[in-house]
Amino acid sequence: MAAAAQQIGGRPDEAAPAAIELRGISKAFGPVQANRNIDLKVPKGTIHGIIGENGAGKSTLMSILYGFYKPDRGQILVNGQALTISDSQTAIRAGIGMVFQHFKLVQNFTVLENIILGAEDGALLRPSLAKARGVLKQLAKDYQLNVDPDETIEELSVGHQQRVEILKALYRQADILILDEPTGVLTPAEADHLFRILEGLKAEGKTIILITHKLREIMEITDNVSVMRRGEMVASVRTAETSPEELAELMVGRKVLLEIDKAPANPGAPVLEVRDLKLVDDEGVERLRGISFDIRAGEILGIAGVSGNGQTQLLELLGGYPEKGSKVSGTIRMNGEVLDLTGTKSDAATRRRRGIGHVPEDRQVEGLIMDFAAWENVAFGYHDKPEYQRGLLMNNAAIKADAGKYMEDFDVRPRDPNLAARNFSGGNQQKIVVAREIERNPDLLLVGQPTRGVDIGAIEFIHKRIVELRDAGKAVLLVSVELDEILSLSDRIAVMFDGRIMGERLPDQTTTGELGLLMAGVTETGPVPDAAGTPPARQQGTDRPEGRG
Amino acid sequence: MDKMPKWADVILTPLISLFLAMAISALVILAIGESPWLALNTMVEGALGSSYGWGFTLYYTTNFVFTGLAVAVAYHASLFNIGGEGQAAMGGLGVALVLLYLPLPHWSIALPVAMIGAALFGAAWALIPAWLQAKRGSHIVITTIMFNFIAAATLNYVLVNILRPPGSMDPSSARFPEATHLPALTDMAAAIGIDWGRNTPVNISFFVAIAACLLVWLLIWRSRLGYEIRALGRSEPAAIYAGIKPVRIILVTMLISGGLAGMMAINNVMGEAERLLLNAVEGAGFIGIAVALMGRNHPVGVFLAALLFGFLYQGGGELALWTSIPRELIIVIQALVILFTGALDNMVRMPLERLFLSLRQRGDS
């Protein structure tokens, strides 16, 4: 509510009009009120964080600012001028630039071609390209935004692709830069570099709006922060005057435990033994280059790494469904028995029967059938269990009974097993998946990105359940791109880079910095040469192309 | 939250579509100087006004139930089987071969055997496109429609060169043995003391069609196979994650779908013609697509939609018989119904959804 929002205190230079001012912005999609009476003031030359859980309305608000949606009510002022932003062209003309979470780049165009796309000066490209080349050189010098202008996008690392997005905005003379979850795909080193770039931009007088759900980033780089919850702006405060705990509480509306308290692990016999696992996909790209590790009973092994370094392939292979056409070698032992890697006994159903549960990385595409009711999803993957059969037909009553129990145990809301999965929030969808996999009491649980797009309250709950499973003497393989999650949950951490495990560390004997270097492919003995024979990664590996795909 | 109540989705939307189709049909009839009211009257009277009319309506309904179910089952696996026409034609060949070459003493034995023959031939005809889709990724819409032509040509060849009795100038098979003739509904009604009036082609297959509706419902919503079919149809990556084998499901689904389309032959070939004729299917395979679309791929919906199209077929025939409205116009009317209930479904649905949303919002505030 506007009334509840604390106004940001006046700084000397705030006599000037704010770069962005929103007054009473409301937007509804059908019955859903995505934004309700939002007030926001972003002073010129500051970095302003906007945090909130998934579905809090951050993206809607920014889409309104960029002209994608028309607000139902309210006023937008840019540099003190009231403005109706009807489309993105208007936003660009007003000096607003947007860096989306999912980059809007043409993969097989060069950097230069992408920069001028939509900003060509005339029918002929050549003069525009020449001009852009000059501007790009200047921008690179001013802000450490080095990118080779003639490289095609697909050859660039994710970090560099993001720079191209920033350059695109700057080329269009953006004074106000909006970044939506910019660090989701970056290594810690790349994220640090991005923050240095943002600070440079701020020093030049640019205004930056940073949308994120990572409290650490907010604390590190922003001047002010606004918190959204359920479509409302619940607070705007100076970053220096707040704490992560306070922000988390504002986001969720209640106190949250940011740290997981867990007892030391009490590992038993090895449950999963993986030796020299290799996978070449159907395009001939080596995705796994000889992975070996053990997970013992009562232990959580966390796999850290930037996404796209083989984690997905590892999970799919262990789960019994490597991508069609990939060639696999190596051995997987489960409780001492060798698992088939090919043939009819290597499928996901057989793996489940062997006691492997799997919370997949993408619950909406793999973990759930979004159109199925919650109760039908509770049987998903386990629908061939004898207790779910009744003669030729399925015993829907038994499935519904289980669904009711699981939803109770995992506090899924609303507790309506007949509701289709798509009508649950991200956190509750994930709870359904986690409940389904954990309640079968698997010997080994594979967990991919358990809290991606999940609200803080549910994160806390899911983490607790994973630790409980470990304490019950089960093995857990946790794959996550969230380093904080890996650090707080894992008993051991393995870092994956380019299809290899770069090293194993214990969470209390390592640092984000050390893991970050490993994630970028740097070990104590220096960068690892690429198997394909390309030159080794340059400084901190940030210039390396990440896995092709 | 659903956009609108279920009754509005499954009943109101098709009714409005139907009403629109009728309104435009009325305009077309007016335009050629005839009375729409008289036309409607003739159709209703001809199709539903007498037990004789009902007999024909239900006969057509039976055909459309089978082809409609065939499309509906495949749809749940996200497969668009538009090869019902060819599969039903091949089903007819199966029925003819079984009845002509196996010594079957009584219709009660002949019927299940003919059903198996019909289903096997229909399923076999769907298997090749299914295999091409599952293994080679050839799009099933393209392959099934091509297989319709191949079926028609094959049937032509078989009838002219193999099944045609010597000396006959007619490209059709010999008549099936007397013992295998299916009891017509008239006979069955008479057996329990009800006078159904004049003899009509509707026969015991009508009840087989109703049973098929029930079995399909059990298959899709109550069986493990149906669960796997629906899961694959909604999300292939999820199905693979759950250990469902897409190749197997695609093959099995198309076998069932083709089998259902083929089973239509017990009605038109065995029940009505009592011999195999060229072009026996008469477009029922294609009507099945409209029936499934309009029936929301649910057996109950399929049955109701099949009834509607049965009415349109029979009523249309009457219209051509008793009025000066040309036969071609009847096809226009049928096409309008398909257009509005199938292709233009969203035209009615979207404003309706918006209406219900605004009603709900008003209720909320």
Automatic annotation (TrEMBL), chain A:
One of its GO terms (molecular function) is ATP binding. Keywords: ATP-binding, Nucleotide-binding. Residues 20-255, 272-523 form the ABC transporter domain. The keyword ATP-binding applies. Residues 523-549 are annotated as: Disordered. The keyword Ribonucleoprotein does not apply. Coiled coil: none annotated. This is ABC transporter ATP-binding protein. It comes from Paracoccus marinaquae.
UniProtKB/TrEMBL annotation, chain B:
It is found in: Cell membrane. Keywords: Cell membrane, Membrane, Transmembrane, Transmembrane helix. The chain crosses the membrane at residues 12-32, 52-75, 87-103, 109-128, 140-163, 204-221, 249-270, 276-295, 302-323, 329-348. Pfam families: BPD_transp_2. It is a multi-pass membrane protein. Its main location: membrane. It comes from the Bacteria. PANTHER family: ABC TRANSPORTER, PERMEASE PROTEIN (PTHR47089), GUANOSINE ABC TRANSPORTER PERMEASE PROTEIN NUPP (PTHR47089:SF1). This is ABC transporter permease. The lineage of its organism: Bacteria, Pseudomonadati, Pseudomonadota, Alphaproteobacteria, Rhodobacterales.
